[in-house]
Amino acid sequence: HVCPPQAFESTLKSWEDKQKGESYRAATRPRLSSQQSMEYLTEEESSLLQQLSRVAETLIARIHEAAKAHKAVEQELAHAVNASSLALSEALSHKAAGTSEFLSRNMAVEMVLSIKELWAETRAFLDGKALDSPQEEEALQGPLSVLGQELQRLLDIHWLGPIAHPAEEVGA
User: Fold this and answer.
1) Which residues contact 38 (CB under 8 A, 6 or more apart)?
2) pLDDT 10s digits, 140-152
3) Backbone dihedral region of 171: left (phi > 0), alpha (psi from -120 to 50 degrees) or beta?
4) Domains in the chain: how many in total?
5) pTM score, two decimals?
């Protein structure tokens, strides 16, 4: 049984459109192949990410401090803080479970994405709003710039590079 050519054509066309849609979506958010995503991190990758998570935790703690004095801090940054705190605690509970590897690559990607988001949001917040005192601003700027450097260091990891890359153009 042979399908009539136009039926075949339209099926092919819809399949091609679907493929285009898929590849467009895949381009907007880097995905790891399923094999890659299940791999665990090397020791070097793991220590870079632990470093990153420590700096992120410092920044989160400073943001909590600043939020006590400034409602705006809380309003603007709560979402990014919660997302990255969640990703970090998942990562850490994973580690606490006694897996010697830090994380699967998939978890690492989630963590880096949320931390990058936190970095971008905090930076945008500081650019847009002057806090009352230079000390308050410095308290956030310090860990923020270190976090930026840590994200830069991740660019050397081939599968994390595209994800860690600071998205300068977003919202600019």
Assistant:
1) 104, 105, 106
2) 999 999 999 999 9
3) left
4) 1
5) 0.70
